[in-house]
Write a structure and sequence with these properties.
The protein contains ten helices and no strands. The protein is 72% helix and 0% strand. The protein is mostly helical.
């Protein structure tokens, strides 16, 4: 990699973090409901907490913005012909920005929507399959955290199956494991509540 290509890669990775750090949920709470989502409900700035405390339309807008935050860095890396390792790094950096945004003292969302966007950019069939699992579990349980955890846990399996028995891509499989780890870590308190049967469904107070 020559110097100009290296500088381009560094720029895209850095911008990926700052794009991922855009606190869409926090801003929706402040602008629309005059509340700080970090101090309410789950404390997350993601779409689910927006849905509970701000409203359906703001939650949908936040969800779509968060998806784009994960997808755009990957598509940018692909557009500038960066290799798959740098594409993965751009996606994971955006995801890290969403979870640990510099603007909010490192307290952000729970990685689900931004992770979906990143997956759609890396491997859209895997992204859609993972989203399908989320929707299926949610339609039965009405519990977002349970749906997120099961979808995240299925991700490495879906990514492995996408290789069709050959053309194994270690960087993509690593991305699936790292994403699963981030989602599960951010949902660790939800998992504890799920175990004791205290996790609220959509429509119930958190």
């Amino acid at each position: 990699m020559n110097d100009s290509a290296l500088l381009l890669a560094i720029l895209i990775i850095a911008l990926s973090y700052f794009l991922g750090s855009i606190p869409s949920g926090y801003l929706a709470g402040k602008w629309i409901a005059k509340i700080d989502l970090r101090q309410i409900g789950s404390g997350s700035t993601g779409a689910t907490n927006v849905l509970r405390h701000v409203g359906k339309r703001p939650a949908l807008a936040v969800f779509l913005i968060d998806v784009l935050k994960g997808a755009i860095p990957v598509f940018a890396a692909k557009a500038y012909l960066l290799d798959e390792h740098l594409q993965v790094l751009a996606g994971l950096t955006a995801l890290a920005g969403h979870i640990w945004p510099i603007w909010l003292r490192w307290k952000g969302g729970k990685a689900v929507a931004t992770g979906l966007g990143m997956l759609l950019g890396i491997s859209w069939p895997v992204g859609l399959a993972c989203f399908g699992i989320f929707l299926t579990v949610f339609s039965i349980s009405k519990i977002v955290s349970l749906s997120s955890v099961i979808a995240a846990t299925s991700l490495p399996i879906l990514m492995f199956l996408s290789f069709n028995g050959g053309d194994f891509r270690f960087s993509y499989f690593f991305l699936s494991l790292a994403t699963m780890g981030m989602v599960l870590w951010r949902h660790r308190s939800n998992v504890q509540r799920l175990i004791i049967g205290k996790e609220p469904k959509i429509g119930q107070s958190s």
